[in-house]
């Protein structure tokens, strides 16, 4: 038996006025996804436990079968694990976005123009982070380069008692002043953020980007604090070897901490221009090479939600259906039996441009257990109408695996 999860990050949504009150899932042309849903199990699942923030960290841990109420220690330590940082028990890590801020003189008066610095490339970002690290590194703080706009700060003997360190994608288009932590413990972090603007505004990478009509990466933004993760291995929990294929360090970090394979895929970007086919093929190769479980993560729908791009969110769903699912299903047909589960980790509604904790639609198809789900197309409403609801996130993976 082989098991595959295809995770469309942030796919679920609320009705979008610009889409006539429909959601991207409702409007997307996704014939393969819908055909599997017709012959499988369709329902809703709560992936974010009550009282926890609806981040991709918490939600993906839930979907992958790790109870975040037990194992979650913060987002950035998982990303640090992917980057290859050897953390001490006393270290605190923070996600370091490089962002585009507006040019008001006072830092607090600036607006969050772009949490991704105009989709900056990893190569450009590496030069920016090198400068940041050279300027700020000491025996307490050190910076490490990740992928695209996503990087990491390690704070020796740091604290996670920092007040509210706001995710930048939560405040797109807003003035940042009221979203800067006022905690005494956060003062050295906020100071670095403020100083980074003057350090980076005339950086050669940014001058070149501005000349090309692109947004500059003119500030760092620190958030997502946490300590060294202590996840059990996936195999110890479920008795099978697994893999995680993703463009983003967060998912790779969860996989590495859980002792799962995390194949590298050239051209995997985390956006709508990612190497869709390459990720699908890499995941299927892990099944051929000893794994029985493959988790394939696509970030694109989430990014489109954060950027208020309803048409691109629809397109991202359609691209996965057209370019990913055929590869996955063709590879699975060689096995005597298989199960495939398709779902988002959380909603990223276009109308709010940030994550939500609402239950999400899921679909499980079992080759030797086909049944009539009662739906002709899977979306937020049709999943609700089946009456199937998994309220406890920790039960989804055991249910899928039949454990």
Relevant terms:
single chain; 403 residues; alpha/beta; Alkaline Phosphatase, subunit A; 2 domains; seven-stranded mixed sheet; five-stranded antiparallel sheet; 16 helices; 18% strand; globular
Give an account of the 3D structure:
This protein has 403 residues and is an alpha/beta fold. The protein folds into two domains: 2-72 and 231-401, Alkaline Phosphatase, subunit A, CATH 3.40.720.10; 83-226, no CATH class. It is built from 16 helices and twelve strands. It has a seven-stranded mixed β-sheet with strand order 8-9-1-10-11-2-12, with helices on both faces. Strands 3, 4, 5, 6 and 7 form a five-stranded antiparallel β-sheet that branches. The longest helix is centred in the first third of the chain and has 15 residues, at 122-136. The relative contact order is 0.24.
What secondary-structure arrangement, pairings included, does this model have?
Blueprint: E1 2-8, H1 24-27, H2 31-38, E2 41-45, H3 56-63, H4 68-71, H5 76-83, E3 92-101, E4 112-114, H6 122-136, E5 141-147, E6 150-155, H7 187-200, H8 204-211, E7 219-226, H9 234-238, E8 242-245, H10 249-257, H11 276-288, E9 293-298, H12 300-306, H13 310-323, H14 325-332, E10 338-343, E11 360-366, H15 380-385, E12 389-390, H16 396-401
Parallel strand pairs: 1-9, 1-10, 2-12, 8-9
Antiparallel strand pairs: 2-11, 3-4, 3-6, 3-7, 5-6, 10-11
Helix pairs in contact: 5-10, 6-7, 11-14, 12-13
